[in-house]
Design goal:
- This protein is an all-alpha fold.
- The radius of gyration is 21 Å and the shape is elongated.
- The protein starts with 13 loop residues before the first helix and ends with a helix.
Length: about 160
């Protein structure tokens, strides 16, 4: 069916939209798993994983470990989907501004990862170091996932000139 020229053109195609929704769902479930693990392990005393008793089957700690592994796997899938979403957006976006914005945000994520790692190296509290290292890893992962979109945008811009 022909489209009227009065209707605005969609800025995001269906594939990019679906990849973005899948990315958000994976991130949301991973964040929910993280919150569930944090609230569940708050009741455990110090190192609950080490015991002198013989294993007695499935425990609450084993369940929390399964939730943590599922959350970490979904976070990894979300990072991959994030990169795929950015590549799809760059492929289907005719302008040159989007790759520049993605490149600038990637640079900010890299600087944030370096800053988090630097701050973590000077801390002595294990909980603070753990949280900062988690932030560093997340920022670095997202920055690396966005690199293909930045390179694709640069190649397209070079081909247009």
């Amino acid at each position: 069916m022909p489209r009227s020229s009065a209707l605005p053109r969609r800025s995001v195609d269906r594939r990019t939209r679906m990849a973005g929704i899948a990315t958000l769902v994976c991130f949301a479930v991973a964040a929910a798993a993280r919150v569930l693990v944090d609230t569940s392990t708050a009741g455990f005393d110090a190192p609950a994983r080490y015991t002198t008793a013989a294993p007695s089957g499935w425990t609450a700690f084993d369940t929390v470990n399964v939730v943590a592994v599922a959350g970490a796997s979904l976070a990894g899938a979300a990072v991959l989907l994030f990169g795929a979403t950015l590549v799809s957006a760059v492929l289907h976006h005719p302008g040159r501004r989007l790759p520049l914005v993605i490149g600038a945000v990637t640079l900010v994520m890299v600087l944030g990862a370096v800053l988090a790692g630097t701050v973590a190296s000077g801390r002595t509290d294990f909980a603070v170091v753990t949280e900062l290292e988690l932030l560093r890893t997340a920022l670095a992962g997202l920055a690396v996932a966005s690199l293909p979109a930045v390179v694709l945008g640069a190649l397209r811009a070079r081909g247009e000139t």
